[in-house]
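re the bet — no i am not wrong, look at it urself. input seq straight from the record:
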Amino acid sequence: MSEQSPEGGRYEDEAAQALPEYAERVLDVAELIPPGRVMTYGDVAEWLEQGGPRQVGRVMALYGGAAPWWRVVRADGVLLPGHEQRALGHYRAEGTPLKEASRAAEGHLPRIDMRRARWDGGDRAEGHT
C-alpha cells in the first residue's frame, strides 16, 4: 500500500521507512504543531537549525502526505497551490485563523492569518531535535 503526498505524488511504504534523517526531523516538527496553528517552511528550518525553507518544502512535497502538511505553510499565508480546498477544509475544521479574501482576490480564497495562527514551538521548543 502506498500513501499520497500533498502534491499528488506517491511513495511506497518502503521509501517512507527509509526517510533521510533530515526529512524525519522535519516531519517530526510538523507533527508537533497543534491543530489550528501553523509554522512556515522557514520557521521549521530555523527550529531545526538546519536547512532552509526550500529544503523543508521539498521534504513536505516528497514525504509529507502522512503528516499534517497543511500546518507547514508559506510565510505570506497563501494556501498551498493545487491543494487549496483540501487545506481549507483542514483549517476550518481545526479553527485556524483565516483572513477572508476580498471579492477582487483571484479565486476568493482566504489566507491564513499569520499573526494569529503562527506557532513558535511553545513549551515543546526546549529540547527539540
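see?? The longest helix spans residues 21-32. told u. also The radius of gyration is 15 Å. so pay up
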